Amino acid sequence: MPAELPVLQSATLPSDAVEVGRIGEAWGIKGWFKIVPYSADPEALLGGGNWYLQPSEKGAKSFFSGTVLLSVKQAREHSDSIVATAEEIPDRNGAEALRGARIFISRADFPKAADDEYYWVDLIGLDVLNREGVSLGVVKDLMSTGPQTTLVLSQEVSGDKPVERMIPFVSAFVDKVDIEGRRITVDWQPDY
Fold first, then answer.
1. Is residue 4 part of a domain?
2. Neighbouring C-alpha atoms within 13 Å toward the C-beta of 178
3. What are the pLDDT digits (tens) for 80-108?
4. Which residue from 34, 46, 62, 159 has the highest number of Cβ atoms inside 10 Å of its Cβ?
5. How far apart are alpha carbons 82 and 5 in whole angstroms?
6. Contacts of 93 (CB under 8 A, 6+ apart)
């Protein structure tokens, strides 16, 4: 007799949804599953609550399509990974059926960042200007380089391919981050 698939409620992906990881293999026999987080600090995943799932973009096809809601009962760190369990997943077969699903969380459900701390997702797209008001580009990515994070900027130059700059995201170079104003002010010159 084939295993029953979990019943998942269809949902609309929130406009502020952020993809934070994917579901890995089943863990144990009681419906727990491993998570592959996209961040070295998966605090948003550990809060539990509502996760929005979408099928994997590659690999095996999921048993569901579109966006579905998963009501997470508990998520916690275990050894070197994250494990979770949800209301809709009663057993190992249900957990295996979710393997590869992409996990999204509403940005509004992220834990509040401490003063002078920022989620990378909030920095992407911000304009970067130096102290003289000269535009250095827009944050297109961030890169962890061991002891520090580096802003990766892209700036369109008329007729040429975009200029890419990297600026260490440390207080020695970053004067101010204004999330509401969508700008970062830095002590940096265009010819560095």
1. no
2. 12
3. 889 999 999 999 999 999 999 999 999 88
4. 62
5. 23
6. 3, 4
Give the end of a domain, one of 80, 109, 138.
109
Q: What is the CATH number of the domain that holds 90?
A: 2.40.30.60
pLDDT, tens only, 64-82:
889 999 999 999 998 888 9
- Sequence-ordered list of residues with C-beta below 8 angstroms from that of 192, at least 6 positions apart, any chain: 165
State the Cα–Cα distance between residues 184 and 104, nearest whole angstrom.
27
C-alpha distances in angstroms, 75 versus 2, 102, 138, 166?
28, 16, 35, 35
| Inter-residue contact 109 to 52 (CB < 8 Å) | no
Q: Taking a C-beta distance cutoff of 8 angstroms, is the pair 3, 87 a contact?
A: no
27 inside domain: yes
The residue with tokens 């560095």 is: 192
